[in-house]
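#struct-help
A.M.: can someone run this one for me? Single chain, 200 residues.
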Amino acid sequence: MDDDYGLIADTVQDSISALAMAVDELAGPVQQAAASIVATLLREGKVMACGNGVDAGLSHLFCSALLAGLERDRPSLPAIALAADGASLSGIAHEQGIEEIWARQVRALGQPGDTLVCFSSGPAADSLLRAIAAAQERNVTVVLLSNAVEASLPAILRDTDIRIACAAARRPRVIELHTVVIHLLCELIDRSLFGNYNGN
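D.P.: on it. Structure tokens below:
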């Protein structure tokens, strides 16, 4: 049990340290991404989100918060988690290959002025590279939440795209930082669009 307590304490301290060290690096890109998403929504565009494995779960969390609201009642915002449709995912993977699961949806659903949010807490995947390329073909802005060491995804971003790089030595800490970024984005988006709206 003492060993368990030590592990728990070390992990919590590691999380606290990662968060504290990330503030200065994240503040600017998070503000930029929130402003870009707000601009998309104000011109009646939509937000799409994707990621593989646990990052797909983060895309669900983000889109759920936009659609349902995170802390308060307010109008729903148009957001699509591309991982949500299992039948389409399996169909695309079977017919076109697993690398096309996001790109094919972006080409079909993305309109100029929309935003695609890509989550990549680990090594880059071909499916995300193709998703970003498809978004650029459709003139869709890309917001990339990545770790700080991955180079292949940031390398293909345009000047108008935004990268939020979360620096942490271990992937669980990156995922935790991405979760905090999601909550920050939602809070900034809500404040920009709805101010002190209380549902009345």
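A.M.: thanks! The chain has a mean pLDDT of 93.
D.P.: also worth noting: The radius of gyration is 17 Å.
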